[in-house]
Write a structure and sequence with these properties.
By secondary structure, the chain is of the alpha+beta class. It folds into two domains: 171 residues, ATPase, nucleotide binding domain (Nucleotidyltransferase, domain 5), CATH 3.30.420; 69 residues, Alpha-Beta Complex (Actin, Chain A, domain 4), CATH 3.90.640. 30% of the residues lie in helices and 32% in strands. The strands form five sheets. Strands 1, 2, 3, 4, 11 and 12 form a six-stranded mixed beta sheet that branches. Strands 6-5-7 form a three-stranded antiparallel beta sheet. It has a three-stranded antiparallel beta sheet with strand order 8-9-10. α3 packs across α4 and α6 crosses α7. The chain is globular and about 65 Å long. One of its GO terms (molecular function) is ATP-dependent protein folding chaperone.
Length: 305
């Protein structure tokens, strides 16, 4: 093995390596392919991935999530302010309009940039890779995928994060290119060169953005015909709509307002994410039940797509 591929998502990350049998997505310490894009700070230690997600609700103010699209941006950027609602820790403006994420770490207030948070997550992904692969003692070379619409500033910020994590990033690869290659590299029935190309539409509804691209394939060749993206029509947007629905439902039936308590607000969002996934696979009404949600009250509801 020479190079590791890191797919940094807004919600989860994935690690891929090339082996004799082909490309393999390796598992983490919890035997899961997906590692949460989450970094949490405590009085004694810093944790990333699954361990960070597990303690997020009890350490919400010191947990950083939804930070992928903050890298390379300015604090006063309109998109930054829109993202702010999804970040539980305090966000502050640093000199030169940079973004700072304020947490309590090792008993004192600390401020980290989004690039430093990404670097911490990359360190975790690097450790997972080294623990998983016996044939290497240290991972250095990597390729990192990014949305095709990432600006030059965002790409340079990501490169800086890889350097902080002691990684040698050989290439930043567009996610659209990675998907197109993954589809076409093993296809044996593609039209020969000179014949009419096969046009394929790829639709990626991610957590923080949706992307669509059309790729033309011939044997040994591909061409990107067009691409589009939307930073509002994405998974967490659907979660937010569901959360608003149940906020009003619970306010009317239980006389509680989840938006007034950050932990309850975040917990409701997580439950709505689970509900969304169940609704996508079922047409019957799906229940939502949360014990000791607020003021020692158990709440319940249901929704049908």
């Amino acid at each position: 093995m020479s190079v590791v591929g890191f797919d940094l998502g807004n919600l989860n990350c994935y690690i891929a390596v090339a082996r004799q049998g082909g490309i393999e997505v390796i598992t983490n310490d919890y035997s899961l392919h997906a590692t949460p894009s989450c970094v949490s700070f405590g009085p004694k230690t810093r944790v990333m991935g699954d361990a960070a997600k597990q303690q997020a609700n009890t350490n919400l103010n010191n947990t950083v999530i939804n930070f992928k699209h903050l890298i390379g941006r300015r604090f006063t950027d309109q998109r930054t302010q829109q993202i702010r609602q999804w970040i539980p820790c305090e966000m502050i403006q640093l000199p030169d309009d940079h973004i700072g994420l304020k947490v309590n770490y090792l008993g004192e207030q600390r401020v980290f940039t989004p690039e430093q948070i990404v670097a911490a997550l990359l360190v975790k992904l690097k450790q997972i890779t080294e623990n998983n692969l016996r044939e290497v003692s240290k991972v250095t070379d990597c390729v990192v995928s990014v949305p095709y619409y990432f600006t030059d500033a965002q790409r340079r910020a990501l490169l800086a994060a890889t350097q902080m994590a002691d990684l040698n990033c050989l290439r930043i690869l567009n996610e659209s290119t990675a998907v197109a290659l993954a589809y076409g590299i093993y296809k044996q029935d593609l039209p020969a060169e000179g014949e009419k190309a096969r046009n394929v539409l790829f639709l990626d509804v991610g957590h923080a953005a949706s992307q669509a691209y059309i790729v033309a394939y011939n044997k040994g060749k591909l061409s990107m015909l067009g691409a589009a993206y939307d930073l509002d029509a994405a998974g967490r947007g659907f979660d937010g709509v569901l959360r608003d629905h149940f906020r009003h439902d619970f306010k009317e039936r239980y006389n509680i307002d989840a938006a007034t308590k950050p932990r309850a607000w975040q917990r409701l969002l997580e439950e709505c994410e689970k509900l969304k996934k169940q609704m996508s696979a079922n047409s019957t009404p799906i229940p939502i039940n949360i014990e000791c949600f607020m003021d020692d009250k158990d709440v319940s509801g249901k929704l049908q797509r």
